[in-house]
Amino acid sequence: MTPFEHSVLDVAGVQNAYIHTMWTVLLGICALMYVLVLGFLLWALLRARRTPDPVRPAESTGVESALYAWIGLVIVGLFGITITSYAVDRAIFAAGQKSGLALEVTSQQWWWDIKYQNDDPSQSFHTANEIHLPVNVPVTISLRSPDVIHSFWVPNLHGKQDLIPGRDTDIHLRPTRTGVFRGQCAEFCGAQHANMAVYVFVESQQDFDRWRAGQLQAATAPTGSTAAQGRDSFMTSACPLCHTIRGTDAAGVTGPDLTHVASRASLAAGALDYNRGNLAAWIADPQGIKPGNHMPTVGLSPQDLQSIAAYLDGLK
Amino acid sequence: MATEVTFPRDETTRAEAATHEWLSRTWATPQGLIGWLSEVDHKIVGRRSLITAVAFFALGGLLALTMRVQLAKPDNNLIGPDLYNQLFSMHGSTMMFLFAVPVMQALGVYLVPLMVGTRAIAFPRLNAFAFWVYLFGGVMLYVAFALNIGPDTGWFSYVPLSGPQYSSGKRVDFWAQMITFTELSSLAIAVSTICTIFKQRAPGMSLQKMPLFVWALLVTNFMVCFAMPAVMIASTYLLLDRSIATQFFNPAEGGDPLLWQHLFWFFGHPEVYIIFIPGLGIVSAITATFSGRPVVAYPLMVLSLLATGFLAFGLWVHHMFATGLPRLGDSFYTAASAMIALPSGIQIFCWIATMWEGRIRFTTPMLFVIGFVVVFVLGGLTGVMLASVPMDLQVHDTYFVVAHFHYVLIGGAVFPLLGGFYYWFPKMTGRLLSERLGKWNFWLFFIGFNVTFFPMHILGLEGMPRRVYTYSAQLGWGSMNLLATTGAFVLAIGVLLFLVNVARSLRSGQRAAANPWGASGLEWATDSPPPNYNFAHIPVAETSEPLWDHPHELPVAHGLRLDRRELLLTSVGEASPDLREPSADPSIWPFLAALAATFLFILSIFTPWGLYIGAVPVAITLIGWFWPRPGESIEREG
User: What does DSSP assign to residue A257?
Assistant: First the structure.
């Protein structure tokens, strides 16, 4: 797998930059409060050890005015936090008002379908578990879930947005630097919640355009006899019932679009790095690698398995 | 201040001896198995509930240790997703429903009648019924888990994942029915406790003289009354969706998955406060005793408890910031969530000020209180961070949140509870726990806790989501997770040491006097352990610190019958004597009714007809329970 980033604190998007500001404010105020409380506690413990007799309730030691000061301080701190939070939330909202690119992400147990939307249907295409974005371009992602609740989360770029069946939600991103940013489903969604990653490749506009042009192409025809044999085995086994390979008869929509599967960095929503060996292993034993996932073990002969892997590995 | 209290009785006079003999006969429970099952004494029922809750705590802890072992290294193959998902669902459900709420209510059942100076809890049979229902519900869940039908959709069981389409089998049904058991039990105890507090306080113990622990239990039990119905309705809707195809949560038929979340968190957020408000009560009791003075600013402490209780119902949406609800609405919940930090902050200040003005004795209970301040305040501050919508969107459902609520719940409930056990153990058993083991217990628990949970803040910020059974080595979360696992074992040794301490003390612990700590509350005015009738003479509380202000002899009230179980009822506000009220004798019916309810609940997991079939034994046992007996009447106090 290419090196990737996955962290809340390493900012790579406009939205997360605002959140980072919020974090800094919160950390500052809360750390100050904590130090004050611990300091007072320590003082009380040291003092109370020396005091010969407890203070009678009637005596005044100035603790009351300290209490009022403390209440004032807490109120000021909480007001500060609440107002900052509101302002940051508004700024994030404003940052999502423009859009230069529209995506539709559909979450399913346990993978992500990515659709690049365009008014011209011939310019729309699907891919899976991998998003490519041009740097500094605001993007709107519409989120849908047909099965259970998932949550779309790429921590370097922004916070979470749940995908809830029966409700349309969306999230706005604007990456500010190139790199590979890992995202992961953040709402518990069943057996394979742990293996439901999505990789966001933020690239220069040229690289993005090149990638996009490649993805718009139909699948490349197999080169070599093994791959050709693999295509035939693929088409005559159970595979096309669930998977689409554009430019062929395979048009299933239950599983990920495989048109350019070999161009991706990972397999099975991040469960494996992409390479031909892992691809064959995955086809041979999906339940061993990702127990409980919805891809069945298709009984394939070793030859069929190898040739199908060869065919798919050619789908760059 | 810490002088021994002499009792308002004279053992040498024959009349006194006869009084005690009469009372212990009147309040005795029949021998034998039937007698054991008929027990209605709040101390014995409370003790049983405490033991049951601690047993569930140990089980829940073992589940957590198993999870920590699986997460200790990346790409670990020890436990698969199916078992892991059951483990965290069982851990959360156990700790929330079978440990935290029951243990706090049980502590109240044991202590509140003693603290308010009465002879029994209100509705003792209902209280006994509540214990059995709780026990049976908990056992049912663990039997299901042992049979590989344990819940696997989390303690929050979000639909549609837990709905009929995505969770086939009976796992979720057992979970949902466990909710019915425990919440029924919880509501019953709430009724008993509230009535005890309102109507059975010692004469003179007006509301403004009530111990803070009793105030905390009052607030908690009122919260139970308002919060628990929401989750019972939710779990019942879920069962109906699953068994007779109602469509409450199915968006395709006009239902809504968010309905579940609203109902669940309308319960689930107050739940957190239900768990730690009693903890705050424990902290007040221990702080006052070991600082040698009452807690500073009593009225403000009471108002803070009340404010927390009210505000707790206005925050639930902060669990749902990521669902895409309207942003302006979210801001109100940010403000409300921040606001609740104020009463907590006031209380923290008042406890420290109490220490500051007092002279501290560094006993084990006091160490746990100091540990509580250090841990709970950190948890509270990360809670304030979570109140902010933008921040929450990042750390929601990550290990940051796992760290946060363990700091709040272990800090706010388990630290005080362990301190409370050390504090009240001599009252309950007549023997002191070892202070030496206690100090080891505290330090191992405190260090183990922080080593386990502090790294989780960092893991969350590094992007580790909750509820994942494994993670890739490439993510670099391995070392922090290993550290957390190491800490978990230290924590577990701390808990083990506590159990060892209890076992040793029960056999050979130092005998405790009636008031071993020199405390001020009425529970220390009777023997350790208390006799079955609690108080030979009903104490009169002339001040809020009765044993400190009357160290040698407590004023008492006379006039209750010796030959019948009788209580003195007082007015709600001023606690002026009002009525003499009979208290129920032991009865087997609550146990039988709980068995019948269990039959109904379990049968309805398997067939909707269970409700009708199960209603028959329930009706029979309730008729038996409420069959009128001659001589039960209320008499005006002459």
Answer: -
Q: Decide if pLDDT at B635 tops 50.
A: no
> For residue B630, what pLDDT band results from cuts at 50, 70 and 90?
low
pLDDT at B122 over 80: yes
Q: Which of residues 35-74 of A touch B (CB under 8 A)?
A: 37-38, 40-41, 43-45, 47-49, 51-57, 61, 63-64, 66-67, 70-71, 74
Phi and psi at B177, nearest 5°, equal -75, -30
Best of B262, B301, B394 to mutate (most A CBs within 10 Å, chain A): B394
Confidence of residue B638 (pLDDT cuts 50, 70, 90): very low
pTM for this model (two decimals): 0.95
**For residue A87, which residues of chain B lie inside 8 Å, CB to CB?**
none
Give the model's pLDDT for residue A60. Answer: 63
Is residue A132 within a helix (H) or strand (E), and if so which, with residue range? strand A130-134
Q: What is the dihedral of CA A224, A226, A231, A232, to 10 degrees?
A: 120
A 126-185 → B contacts, CB under 8 A: 147-149, 151, 153, 155, 158-162, 164-167, 169, 182, 184-185
ipTM associated with this complex: 0.96
pLDDT over 50 (residue A17): yes
Helix (H, G, I), strand (E, B) or coil at B548: helix
CA angle, residues B43, B554, B127, in degrees to nearest 5: 20
Residue A19: list chain B partners with CB under 8 A: 390-391, 393-394
> Which residues have CB under 8 Å from A46's CB, separation 6+?
none
Q: How confident is the model at residue B328 (pLDDT cuts 50, 70, 90)?
A: confident
Cα separation, B577 vs B575, in Å, equals: 6
Please say whether the beta carbons of B565 and B584 come within 8 A: yes
CATH domain A225-313 topology:
Immunoglobulin-like (2.60.40)
A172 phi/psi in degrees, rounded to 5: -115, 130
CB contact (8 A) between residue B349 and residue A67: yes
- Shortest Cα distance from A98 to chain B (angstroms)? 18
Q: Which pLDDT belongs to residue B2? A: 38
CB-based contact B277:B220 (threshold 8 Å): yes
Q: Which of B323, B362, B363, B520 to mutate: most A Cβ within 10 Å?
A: B323
- Closest CA of chain A from B238, distance in Å: 15
Residue A20: count of CB within 10 angstroms of its CB: 18
> For an interface test with A, which of B290, B339, B356 has the most A Cβ atoms less than 10 Å from its Cβ?
B356
Residue of B nearest to A56 (CA): B293
pLDDT of B514 higher than 80: yes
DSSP per-residue letters across A42-84: HHHHHHHHH-SSPPPTTS--SHHHHHHHHHHHHHHHHHHHHHH
A188/B373 touch (CB, cutoff 8 Å), yes or no? no
Kindly list the residues from chain A whose CB atom is less than 8 angstroms away from the CB atom of residue B465.
Answer: 153, 184-186, 193
Residue A57 distance to chain B (closest CA, Å)? 7
Number of H helices, E strands in chain A: 7, 12
Q: In chain A, list all ranges with CATH 2.60.40.420.
A: 1-49+62-216, 225-313
**CATH level 2 (architecture), domain A1-49+62-216:** Sandwich (2.60)
Residues 6+ apart with CB under 8 A from B489: B65, B68, B448
Which tens digits make up the pLDDT trace of B50-94?
Answer: 999 999 999 999 999 999 999 999 999 999 999 999 999 999 999
pLDDT tens-digit series, residues B252-287? 999 999 999 999 999 999 999 999 999 999 999 999
- Among residues of chain A, what percentage have pLDDT more than 70? 96
On the question of pLDDT at B632 being above 60, the answer is no
pLDDT at B636: 43
